[in-house]
Design brief:
Helix content: 40-55%
Number of helices: 8
Strand content: 5-15%
Number of domains: 1
Distance between the termini: 63 Å
Largest sheet: 2 strands, antiparallel
Oligomer: single chain
Order of helices and strands: EEHHHHHEEHHEEH
Structural class: mainly alpha
Radius of gyration: 20 Å
Length: 285
């Protein structure tokens, strides 16, 4: 019996735009929006299961999202400023791609912490509620890069290689049509982190803030590897791309934060999610 290979590569959208009458709907923005909505729903559910007020979280969501989007775009523009010289208005075209996760976490995180402290909310529970939701949003959002045919790796003939149109290929790889789908690898890595966080949360006695630190540690470890697989233009410092250096620094900071949270010794909600629901946790002190 002869085996026939059906899947030879992952096709990419030709335009990344869905026309609804006169209204163009950009897939990149749609996918990012879906990720944000899923994250907001899950984070609020986890926050409530920890015995906190859902309305208090809902009042933060819009500001956290705005802070995250502004931070993500600012990070991209600042670290790739050469792409915008002479056409600064393009900095506002976020539907064309260019949202740095580092800026998103910093921008949204700063807003969340500042508002939480002003409103006397539990910051440790807040960031631990957000951590799995955030990495799940990243897993979804990475498919926006597929829609824009961006952030792929080197040429590849693997069955899961992604097809890239000639206009979107790096000049040095213009003769190649399929490439390593680094967006897919990162999406799968984020899903693995999501599952890991839920398992660790249920089985390990953590202190407040440690779950978020663990998320940063795991994500940056994977991102360091994937960053060095990508072929998109990037500023370099010495042997590494800028984002690889950022991943290293964030990893070290997260390790220190994990240790500090352990020494600080404020227990997280015990047995969170034991029932199998990623949003479940007890409200016992």
């Amino acid at each position: 019996m002869r085996l026939v290979t059906v899947v030879a590569s992952i096709p990419s959208p030709a335009r990344g735009v869905i026309e609804i009458g006169p209204l163009p709907l950009h897939l990149y923005g749609l996918i990012i929006a879906v990720g944000v909505l899923v994250a907001a729903w899950l984070a609020e559910r986890r926050w409530v299961r920890r015995g906190h007020d859902g309305d208090a979280f809902s009042s933060l969501v819009l500001w956290m999202v705005l802070g995250g989007v502004v931070g993500a775009r600012l990070y991209h523009v600042i670290t790739d400023v050469q792409l915008f010289r002479g056409r600064w208005l393009d900095a506002f075209k976020i539907w064309e791609g260019g949202l740095g996760i580092w800026g998103a976490v910093m921008g949204g995180g700063i807003v969340a912490i500042v508002l939480a402290r002003r409103r006397h909310l539990d910051v440790g529970d807040l960031i631990d509620s957000i951590a799995p939701a955030l990495v799940l949003a990243q897993a979804i959002g990475r498919w926006g890069n597929w829609a824009n045919q961006e952030l792929f790796g080197r040429p590849s003939t693997l069955p899961w290689a992604v097809e890239i149109d000639p206009a979107n290929r790096p000049p040095e790889y213009a003769a190649y049509s399929t490439f390593q789908p680094t967006f897919l690898y990162e999406s799968l890595w984020c899903l693995a982190i999501f599952a890991t966080l839920l398992v660790v949360e249920r089985r390990v006695r953590l202190m407040k803030g440690q779950l978020f630190a663990l998320y940063v540690m795991l994500y940056t470890a994977g991102r360091f590897v994937l960053e060095n697989m990508r072929t998109d233009p990037a500023n370099r410092f010495g042997p590494l791309r800028l984002n690889a250096w950022v991943a290293l620094v964030c990893f070290v900071v997260a390790v220190l934060g994990f240790v500090w949270a352990r020494r600080r010794g404020i227990p997280a909600v015990p047995d969170a999610g034991r029932s199998g629901d990623p949003g479940v946790g007890t409200t016992e002190p």
